[in-house]
Design a protein that fits this description.
Chain A is an all-beta fold. Helices cover about 0% and strands about 50% of the residues of chain A. In chain A, a hairpin with a 4-residue loop joins strand 7 and strand 8. Chain B has no helices and 11 strands. The model of chain B has no long low-confidence stretch (mean pLDDT about 95). The chains are: A mainly beta, B mainly beta.
C-alpha cells in the first residue's frame, strides 16, 4: 500500500502545473487524500484535502483560490494544480492519507521549483 | 482556524535522555491529534494517533498523552535514530493545522 507521486518540476513564474499522487494497493475512493507543503528549511503546512469518491474538498484559507485539488477515481489518482505559479510556491509537496484511525500513508514528495 | 502552539522549537539531548514535546490547541480538538517524525530528506511518518495510540511498528519508547487541550509526546529513552524534527497535527476540524515543529538535536 503506497502513494506514488509524480517527479520534480521546474517552472517559470506564471506557468501552470498539475502534480499527481497515485494510489497503489489502496483504493483512494474510500479515503481522504491530503496535500502538505514544506518550503525549503521550513515546517509542514496543510494545504487541502479531497475525497475522491465524490470529489468533496476542503482548503486551508492560505491556499484557497491559488491551488485546486482534484481526483480521477478511475485511475486511483489525486492531483494538486496551479494555474499561475509564483516563486513562493517553491517547495516539496506531499500527498498523504492520515487522520482519524490507524492508517498513515505518505507519498515520497514532489519538489516544485519556480524560478525565472 | 485552530492554532497549534508547539514547544520547544528545538532541544539538545543525549542518547538515553527522556524528552518531552508539547502542543497546545487553541480550541478543543478532542483526541484528534497525531505526532509525526520527519528525518531530513524523507516524508513525515506518524508515531502516535488519537493523541495516545501507538502507530503500528513504532517503538514503545514513544508515547502520547493529553490533558485538556495540551498534548505531549514523550520519548522515554532517546536513541540515535530519534534525532529528527517532530510535528503535531490536529485533524479534528478544517483546516487541519500542524504545530511549528521541534528539532531534536544531539547534545
Amino acid at each position: 500500500v503506497q502513494l506514488v507521486q509524480s517527479g520534480a518540476e521546474v517552472k517559470n513564474p506564471g506557468e501552470s502545473l498539475k502534480i499527481s499522487c497515485k494510489g497503489s494497493g489502496h483504493r483512494l475512493t474510500s479515503t481522504w487524500i491530503g496535500w502538505v507543503r514544506q518550503m525549503p528549511g521550513k515546517g509542514l503546512e496543510w494545504v487541502a484535502i479531497i475525497y475522491p469518491g465524490d470529489s468533496e474538498s476542503r482548503y486551508h484559507p492560505s491556499f484557497q483560490g491559488h491551488v485546486t485539488v482534484s481526483a480521477d477515481k478511475s485511475i486511483n489518482t489525486a492531483y494538486l494544480q496551479w494555474s499561475s505559479l509564483r516563486a513562493s510556491d517553491t517547495a516539496m509537496y506531499y500527498c498523504c492519507v492520515t487522520g482519524v484511525g490507524p492508517v498513515d500513508i505518505w507519498g515520497q514528495g514532489t519538489m516544485v521549483i519556480v524560478s525565472s | 482556524d485552530i492554532q497549534m502552539t508547539q514547544f520547544p522549537s528545538s532541544l539538545s539531548a543525549s542518547v538515553g535522555d527522556r524528552v518531552t514535546i508539547t502542543c497546545r490547541a487553541s480550541q478543543d480538538v478532542r483526541d484528534n491529534l497525531g505526532w509525526y517524525q520527519q528525518r531530513p530528506g524523507t516524508a513525515p511518518k506518524r508515531l502516535i494517533y488519537g493523541a495516545s495510540s501507538l502507530q503500528s511498528g513504532v517503538p514503545s519508547r514513544f508515547s502520547g498523552s493529553v490533558s485538556g487541550t495540551e498534548f505531549t509526546l514523550t520519548i522515554s529513552s532517546l536513541q540515535p535514530e530519534d534525532f529528527a524534527t517532530y510535528y503535531c497535527l490536529q485533524y479534528n476540524s478544517y483546516p487541519r493545522t500542524f504545530g511549528q515543529g521541534t528539532k531534536v538535536e544531539i547534545k
